[in-house]
Amino acid sequence: MMHENEIRTDAALVRRLLAGQFPAWAGLPVAEVRSAATNNAIYRLGDDLVVRLPIVEDAVEQAEFEGTWLPRLASALPVPVPEPVALGRPAEGYPFPWSVCRWIEGTHPTGAEGAGFARELGEFVAALRRADPTGAPTGYRGVPLRARDASTRAWIGTAAHDIDVPAALAAWEHALAQPEWDGPPVWVHCDLIPGNVLVSGGGLGAVIDFGASGTGDPACDAIPAWALLDPAHRAAFREAAGFDDAAWARGRGWALTFVSGIDYYRTTNPAMSELGLRAVEAVLADFR
Question: Which of 79, 138, 168, 264 is the most exposed place for a label (fewest CB within 10 A)?
């Protein structure tokens, strides 16, 4: 288990939930989707659908959030995003709301994608930023970077055996020293990491998992420059997304906050632990 008080799920639970609430889908095959997801268990339902079950209380509001906002955002974005088709209720001993969405084909990026993919990801960020933010809540990483100061310093200390601590602290201080965002709230995805991006035909195919999304400082959507992209293609991404110097530096600070996953997920979710280490190493190489 990755988290304290994590809810266990399996395909049998999904079948029972479907039988009780959406019997038209109850006969479809159910298969767990192996992923590095940290807040939801994911099950493919037949060929065209996917079931998403929150496994921690922090993720409970995600299903309703996506059901409300993704239909509004979809038309403003250049690539597909999840299409919610049903919202389930707690039942069968499972305590949280859950969702059914359309399945989107694609593979996760490996870092070997070219400049075209980087530009398309930047164009997605720019398009999301232009979407109407009226009434939307603040995103998980839409807050000022300084809100993560104490926790990031603590996690940097925890990762002392894995990273250059003085360099990490220097990079963090530099990010904190940047001017804070003083513009109006804009839409931000907040979690553009490999597991939430799909590649199709060598280009950007879709962006998924908007559970952390909302409005706020757009700097957090610079995270993929260090957590996802080849260094050679960062400039193409930055130009397409339109990050100024201060936002880019704050975004590098947001990528550094992934230091938290290095130790936290070391044994329970190695892919996320490796992502944290890779992001921190990329930040420090860039900062130097």
Answer: 138
| List of residues 6+ apart from 19 with CB closer than 8 A | 26
- For Cα atoms 116, 247, 271, give the angle at the middle one, nearest 5 degrees: 60
Tell me the residue ranges of DSSP E strands in the chain.
30-32, 40-45, 49-54, 84-88, 98-102, 186-188, 197-200, 203-207, 214-216
Confidence of residue 177 (pLDDT cuts 50, 70, 90): very high
What DSSP character marks residue 93? Answer: T
- pLDDT of amino acid 108: 95
- Among residues 139, 132, 130, 141, which one has the least CA distance to residue 78? 130
Cβ atoms of residues 195 and 274 within 8 Å: no
Q: What is the pLDDT of residue 137?
A: 95
How far is residue 72's CA from residue 132's CA, in Å, rounded to a whole number? 9
How high is the pLDDT of residue 166? 97
Residues 194 and 189: their CA atoms lie apart, in Å, by: 13
Give the per-residue pLDDT at 38.
82
pLDDT of 57 reads 86
